[in-house]
Specification:
about 40% helix, two-stranded antiparallel sheet, disordered N terminus, 3 helices, binds iron/sulfur cluster, Alpha-Beta Plaits, about 90 residues, alpha+beta
Length: about 90
């Protein structure tokens, strides 16, 4: 009987780890980016700008709730400097 809860917890942990590993990351090409800042205007809850106007984006996989904002930021970029990395 004590094995069932442990097995369920292990399964939940595996699902969580798997989801995190599959979560795409939003990346910026620092050579292409010219610091216009349109990405931060399009997704202010996801993208900040540094003092020079270059984007500061999360260094982790995106949560499902962040994907729409990430795509909006990528679409807004006139230099196409934002891209998605999936692992
Ligand atoms: S909109 Fe594009 S070029 Fe402008 S700061 Fe964002 S990533 Fe860089």
């Amino acid at each position: 009987m004590t094995g069932a809860p442990q097995a369920a917890a292990a399964s939940a942990a595996a699902r969580t780890a798997g989801a995190g590993a599959a979560a795409p990351r939003l990346r910026v090409d620092p050579v292409t980016c010219d610091g216009i800042g349109a990405c931060a205007l399009a997704a202010p809850d996801l993208v900040d700008l540094d003092p020079w106007g270059f984007p500061l984006i999360p260094r982790r996989g995106l949560a499902p709730a962040e994907l729409a904002a990430a795509h909006a930021a990528a679409r807004a970029c006139p230099r196409q400097a934002l891209w998605f990395q999936s692992r």
